[in-house]
Records
---
Amino acid sequence: MTKTGMGAAVRRKEDHRFITGAGQFVDDINRPNQLYACFVRSPIAHARIAGIDASAALEVEGVVAVLTGADMAADGMGGLPCGWGIHSKDGSPMVEPAHPPLVTDAVKHVGDQVAVVLAETRAIARDAAEMVEVDYDDLPVVAGIEAATNQEISQAQNRMLLLVYGAVCGLVFVGFGSWRAVVCIAVPLMLTSALCQALMAVLGIGVKVATLPVIALGVGVGVDYGIYIYSRLSTFLRQGMGIEEAYRNTLKTTGKAVAFTGVTLAIGVGTWIWSPIKFQADMGKLLTFMFLWNMVGALWLLPALARYLCRSGPSATRTARAASAR
Amino acid sequence: MSITVSLTLNGEAVSAEVEPRTLLVQLIRDNLSKTGTHVGCDTSQCGACVVHVDGRSVKSCTMLAVQAEGADVTTIEGVARNGELHPMQAAFREHHGLQCGYCTPGMIMSALDLVKHNPDPGDGEIREWLEGNLCRCTGYQNIVRAIRAGAESMRSGE
């Protein structure tokens, strides 16, 4: 490294005063009759301020004022301005929420400034700040990014379920051309989804990014079973069988396949329940439940619904019409 | 209720009337107007308030003023002699051991106590010693370098 010219270290002019204790920082300023400020800060993360009682603090000798957000608003003082606003990619201005130095309605984090005490000495300001009584009404708290994401997801979940069921019902209607088919196939599915959520509540598994696909997957597998069973059942009925005979024959054929698939899938994911990884264990419990319950729904609930919806089972009208034509 | 505290500050006999709860740093800064000693955290973590009390480095925000009765207290203002920078101060300037300068008085006072115990400290020993001194300009690298150089100058009696 060179000692002079390009690349040489340059001594800073301000260093001398800093290393000798002669720097001048804001806290070092001491003027005659100056006042000291002490802030009253929120001990809780999120709460509405129901009231601030500063009467005791104001009685302390040496206290000059206790100011709150309401005082600042009354004086028409705005929030802290953003020093350097930038534009979004699409040219829209930066979102700039109000940021008042003293909160006006609700505290948003621990340490949020609620009031400021001005007094003749630092000690008096501190003492008086402790005497300001703030009435907090607790509000819900979102602590951490995961919690915030999960809150967003619990809202997104309903939209997702609506879309999934919309698609399933639409496609089943197009495929079978019958609202009875839609009811027979969709109702067991919805029951499974609802029970899955109940199970999550019982097991203490929260709605997370990770649980979203489980419900979608459950619907996906469940709709397969339903379509196979319904389709076979209606075929037998169309051949002129009674509902009981058609059901028995369906169980012997497609029913066996559905039961086999459901049980094998459930055994596969069931082993995850003993995983030391909590996420995998939770997924194991939920998926096992969904695979098994979807199977039960398709093999048992679907035909029951079919029996109830049309005296002689699905496509009965068409079957009757076909029989009379013959 | 107030109480009189008398002590020696940077070689000068001083006294002040303070409340019993007054901290040593408040006495030094507010009553004796030596503002080179800083309060960074108020919770004994940052070390910006380090002074020497009877030759030992102390966080002056963690000691009551009355505890310093009769003591010999040295602050950053008392380190340079006759307008001449102490070798440790000179080393901090030379090696860019500071940016904003807020933690610097505490750093220098801590470093001086270290060198008293250990005239030739290694990087590891310096870093361990500075455990109670925080720098928020993230200048530790140069601070450690400055303290090694300062210790060397002190050994060679510059």
---
Amino acid sequence: MRWLALAASVAGVAVLAGIIGIRLVHDRPMQSTTFHSTAPLADVHAAGGWKPADPRLRGAAIELRAAQGELQQAMAMAPHADYLQQLLQHTERQQSRLQRLERDAG
Amino acid sequence: MKPVRLPSLVQITFATAVLFGVATSTHADTPLHLSHDATPDAQVVIRNVKGDVRVTGWNENRVQVEGSLGSGAKPLQITGMPSSLVIQVESNGGSSWFKLGGSDNVGPTSLDVRVPHAAVLQVHVVSAPVDIDGMDSRDISVNTVSGRVHLGVHAGSVKIDSVSGDVDLAGTTRSFDAQTVSGDVQAATLGGNANAQTVSGAVLLRGSALDNVNLETVSGRIQLDAAAANDAAWKINTMSGDVRVGLPVDTVARIKADTFSGDLHSDFGKPVTSEHGPGSHLDTGVGKGGGNIAVNSFSGDVHIQGAAH
């Protein structure tokens, strides 16, 4: 009988340890998706490579950079096309908006 | 040496059950049933990071919230005065509501909100899809990162800022303004002024007589089917997106279009291809007077079509 109680105690401890383990894993912040960038915007621009930690913003940032590169190539081929300059400014405004979102996220 | 007294099987089972209950209870969603008096044209601000947001206009001077609150969120309240109300889902940790990554500690919250149909509405979400219906409002605005936005409303003005979420306006407005990076923008029954800017998202708009139109994409395609108002000022610019503009055959306007390396086709006037360099150009007056329509593309094709409306 004593052995049965001992075995039950061990099983109970194992269950408790499992529950605690699950809680710890579940409650741990997802480091890979939290923001780490606290650099001022000017510094980010100076670095020339704004890389938000959040995957949703990161994808948009990559897309905006690619678009800006393509626009600059197009402007080199058609320097009098004012609308390309406007499109470039539009991507810069979008980039600023995303950076504000990142700052708001803390 | 005293023998160690081991707990009985019943005690262990009970303790385990209690601890298991504690472990799981904090992760259960909480049903929401909230209500607050509101003026007919109250300003209502809704903030929810993830889950979903449905807003419906009704004829009562009251805001009502149903749905379920995600685990890890503070108890929800409708705060403010009847003329200005806020419904904000916040993390229990007390951090800013708008934690893109940190919000993973908070479960998705589903908000089903009823507001006076003339309320002025602001909705802020991150990944939650937003559906707004049954409103006849002066002003509706939505900010989202990746959640799609569907509006079945009548509104004086609609303003939507999105990153990758698609935007779909099924109702009517006199002033439409949508900005996205990769999200598509669609609106079927526009009137008045339309402004849409994307990077790669498509812009697909239909409307009645439009006054001021400003559509810009870098690579997203643009399709606009509408009539130009008498004093219309339309500007459609893209780098590599294809542009298709459908105009009534009886349109009265001056139409200018340029493309550097794309094809240019028009049912109005005859495009000219430069002899000494790349590009095609169109500058034609259709009828006497009317507004101005300008289309510019670097490498995208441009089609200006006459269609019986």
---
Amino acid sequence: MSAESYAERRQSSDFLLGARESVPIVLAVVPFGLLFGALAVEHGLSIFEAVLMSVTIYAGASQMVGLDLFGTNIAPWLVVLSIFAVNFRHVLYSATIGRYLDHWTPLQRVIGFFFLVDPQFAEAERRVENGEPLSFSWYMGLALPVYLCWIAESWLGAVFASLIPDAHAFGLDFILPIYFLALVMSFRKRPLWLPVVAVSAVASVVAYHTIGSPWHVSFGAMAGILLGALLVPATPAEEKQ
Amino acid sequence: MSTTTFWIIFAGAVLTYLTRVGGHLVLSRFERVHPRVEAGLNAVPAAVLTTLVAPAAMEGGPAEIAALVTGAVIALVGGGMMTIFFVSAAVLVGLRHLIG
């Protein structure tokens, strides 16, 4: 077999592997995509506008926050600022995962970073942690099903807005916290995991009740990250030698 | 579609994309990453994802807390993502119907 066809086979199998790992993410996100579409229409957006938001912004929580503010008399730049504030955590994802993407072409990075949502970041980090290669094919295999389903769900939710059942009765409103908890737990083998989780949890809850949402995310995260940075010796590289 | 709505969505999308490339663009300007920065970045997944769970847990009632505890226990005994997901959701829905 030639090297080229071997590389191609490897690419397509990586893509399929990523697609298979996207299944739990897709399932976790279904109720939120539908809910977003339905809420968008309730808040006076057209179906096209709802879908456009999912296609271009592609960040569930910030889209919901945007919706909340659309109908009000709040200045447009404040709506945009709120979307930015909710998504600010992606800066950290980008810096963290970017360290492992040296083998990607610039174009692959330009495309890849667009899809860097919470579960995408968590799965990519886990893959690095397991010592598996973070190939562009695997990354896109994971990203595309989640992205396309998110768009489709937004559309379905918007079209069938009146048919969306009571999310609370079915536990749909709490699926994402459960899912994020599962992701938090999946990193429990990392050094300092428990102290970081504990500090971030306390800091985010305090911030949630004082400075308010969405700043509790950035504030709580910074507390955990600073702890991680402070507890690690400043010169581990020299010590090893 | 109103032009205001369009510009809000457009600006929101551009800024969101900037957050997703920004961290990498800033970090890649440095030749060497300081070990403390490295350690801080290694704490990012646990730190950020925790902030997405903790307030929801604090605001939640017994059913929500029970669902999260169930999920954590299943994870600790080695259960996979799908198991955590479905068992916790079942606990949540069941308790919500029982407690009301």
